[in-house]
Amino acid sequence: MNKYIIEFIGTFFLVLTIGLSANPIAIGVVLAALVYMGGYISGAHYNPAVTLAIWMQKKIKPNEAGVYVVVQLIAAIAAAMVYQVIHGDKMIVAPGFRYSFGAALVAEIVFTFALVSVVLHTAVSKKTAGNNYYGIAIGFILMAGAFSVGTISGGAFNPAVGLGPNIYNFGFLSQHWSNLALYLIGPLLGGFLASYIFGLTQAKSKK
Q1: Which of 10-14, 46-50, 51-55, 170-174 has the least mean pLDDT?
Q2: Contact between 20 and 87 (Cβ < 8 Å)
Q3: C-alpha to C-alpha distance for 107 and 153, rounded to whole angstroms
Q4: What are the φ and ψ backbone dihedral angles of 100, each rounded to 5 degrees?
Q5: In the prediction, which pLDDT does 173 show?
Q6: CA distance 157 to 190
Q7: CA distance 41 to 7
Q8: What CA–CA distance (Å, rounded) separates 26 from 29?
């Protein structure tokens, strides 16, 4: 149960910070802090794409991974509710209107790949076990992604971030069903590819 509580807290504050600040520096800093806070308890996933990648590495059981994802989505919806109380309107995560679905999708895939790769190499690999920089590395790569393509794809790199607020604001989602595909396919495919390539590099490094 402690793991799920931490996943809720971490995802909640990540999504709330994204909504209230929309500032890549604040987003990167809060993720780094939350990773250090919860890493030793839950692994500090806060992201279904990360959970998918870690499940592929057999570091988490399938049923536990499923609960992680549900908790992450509930936390994101809760953050969207609090955002509305504080901000006065509903939180929307969406790609930039000037960009095509294809451009936004590529941005989500590429930078989710980068984010999950950093997570795997700094916080999962046995070769870097015990390091003290994993949280900073994870926060910095998210910051870089938000600066680089936040205005293009919405800078989610995380199905909980992309879908939770829009599920809460269902009226918006019902008019923008392409966002459902964008924030499911992009981050999950990026996470899958990161885990697959991580597995290849780790296998080769053992020889």
Answers
A1: 170-174
A2: yes
A3: 6
A4: -75, 165
A5: 76
A6: 8
A7: 9
A8: 5
Give the position of tokens 């070769």: 127
pLDDT for 113-168, tens place per residue? Answer: 999 999 999 999 999 999 999 999 999 999 999 999 999 999 999 999 999 999 99
Global pTM value: 0.95
Tokens 């949280």 — which residue?
135
100 pLDDT more than 70: yes
**CA–CA dist 119, 94 (Å, integer):** 25
| Residue from 50, 72, 54 nearest 141 by CA | 50
Neighbouring C-alpha atoms within 13 Å toward the C-beta of 13: 18
By C-alpha distance, which of 13, 137, 11, 149 is closest to 67? 11
* Encoded tokens for 196: 């697959």
Two tokens, residue 4: 């799920």
| Secondary structure (3-state) at 205 | helix
Residue 205: predicted pLDDT: 54
Is residue 47 exposed (0-12), middle (13-18) or buried (19+ Cβ within 10 Å)? buried
Q: Are 134 and 123 in contact (CB under 8 A)?
A: yes
Q: Based on the number of CB atoms within 10 Å of its own CB, is 103 exposed (0-12), middle (13-18) or buried (19 or more)?
A: middle
46: region left, alpha or beta (phi > 0 left; psi from -120 to 50 alpha): left
Residue 148 corresponds to which tokens in the numbers above? Answer: 């680089």
CB 143 within 8 A of CB 117: no
- Report which of 69, 45, 8 is spatially closest to residue 123, judged by C-alpha positions: 45
